[in-house]
Amino acid sequence: MVSATPEIIHDQISTARLQLKKWEPDPWMFGDHTTERKPTTPSEWFSKMFPVQAHIHGCPFIELAEDRSDGLKKINPLSANLDFLAAILGGDEKMGHKIIYLEGEMQWYYLDQPSNIFKPTADEKLANLLRALLIRCAEELPDNVHKLNLFLEFRSDKTIRAVVHRAKSILAADHTFFCTDSKNARQKGLEVHERLAKVFVEQILERQPGEVLTLTNAYLVFIEFLKQKSMVPVKRSIFKGMFTPLIRDAFNLGLRNDVIDQATNHQTAGWKGLRALEVQEMAEKGSNS
Amino acid sequence: MKPATMNDTQHEQRLDELEKARKLWQESEWRLNFLRTQTGTETPPPTDEEILLWYQQHQR
Q1: Domain span including residue A66
Q2: Model confidence at B7, in pLDDT bands (50, 70, 90)?
Q3: Chain A residues lying within 8 Å of B54, measured CB to CB
Q4: CA A131 to CA A125: how far, in whole Å?
Q5: pLDDT for B9-58, tens place per residue?
Q6: Ranges of chain A with pLDDT below 50
Q7: Last residue of a domain, one of A178, A202, A221
Q8: Cα–Cα dist A247/A255, whole Å
Q9: A96 contacts in B (CB within 8 Å)?
Q10: Closest by alpha carbon to A236, among A250, A259, A218?
Q11: Would the CA dihedral through A80, A86, A87, A90 be positive or negative?
């Protein structure tokens, strides 16, 4: 954290205090938004722009307010409220924005405008938005505000990563968010299945010497996995095209046509040295339904 | 241009609202562009009517 040295503070400041001060409208303006006073501190700037999040999560920054002997008032934002910064990534409803983190897919979605369709986005893109808001705040505030923390410390990879990580719990949504009964629509297409396929390979498949995973069993388990996420099934041919390169990349295993299906004792397509966790249970459920 | 069905006051109100709508639309686009991924297809810019409709939907 960057702050003034104690010697400088002692010489020039008559009083200094820590403050948690959100933006409040001028009481004399009676809701006239055209002549609203401008924010004068980083906390005021952010809480004016995101009043709902400030109401729920509190003041955006703790600030050192210094009344100097020369009559100037200096404001130095010392530390950021990570919960507030994480919550503002959720978007502003005034503009129809909404951002959620779909836990089952480990995927961010934002509500695009004017289409009103949720589209996928990434940690890095959310980080870019947050960094842009912080620098805009620094640029728009007057010169009596210390800008160094706004520019450097709060925009550092470490801080931004912590904010985006925290946002995953604050903005978490479960699989019912996009279920068929929900009013939320997301971009259709194979890319959703491809993302789920990657999650499936990471979470459900594991290397196990001596084991055999047939293409049929892997397909049935994946269909069951999709059903749990309220997703429509994919065709077997599409599944084969998606999974063959994914498994090769993840486990260095190629699809072969000489594995023996233990249930039928027939030669079939599959992977040697691979198994799906809970394969029996999921495949049985899949074939029964 | 003023539509024939509007009087001067209505026309002025519409222009005021359109100005606010454009401002909010610009802010919305500024934020959403950080989250979007570039695509090969180009989306045409919205018309004034579309911006006004979008604004009215979200101000309710």
Answers
A1: 6-178
A2: confident
A3: 96, 113-114
A4: 10
A5: 888 888 999 999 999 999 999 999 999 988 877 778 899 999 999 999 88
A6: 289
A7: A178
A8: 9
A9: 28, 54, 57-58
A10: A218
A11: positive
Is there a single domain that holds both residue A249 and residue A115? no
User: Domain check: are A164 and A123 in the same one?
Assistant: yes
Domain total for chain A? Answer: 2
Q: What confidence score (pLDDT) does residue A266 get? A: 87
Q: Distance from B4 to chain A by nearest Cα, in Å?
A: 29
Lookup: tokens for B37? 């991924």
Instruction: Choose among A95, A99, A120: nearest Cβ to B28.
Output: A95
Structure tokens at A180: 């068929």
The pLDDT of residue A289: 47
Position A11 scores a pLDDT of 58
Q: Is the distance from CB of A175 to CB of A229 less than 8 angstroms?
A: yes
* pTM of the full structure: 0.71
Closest by CA to A129, choosing from B14, B27, B56, is: B27
Q: Is A23 helix (H, G, I), strand (E, B) or coil?
A: coil
* pLDDT on residue B1: 65
Amino acid identity, position A258: D
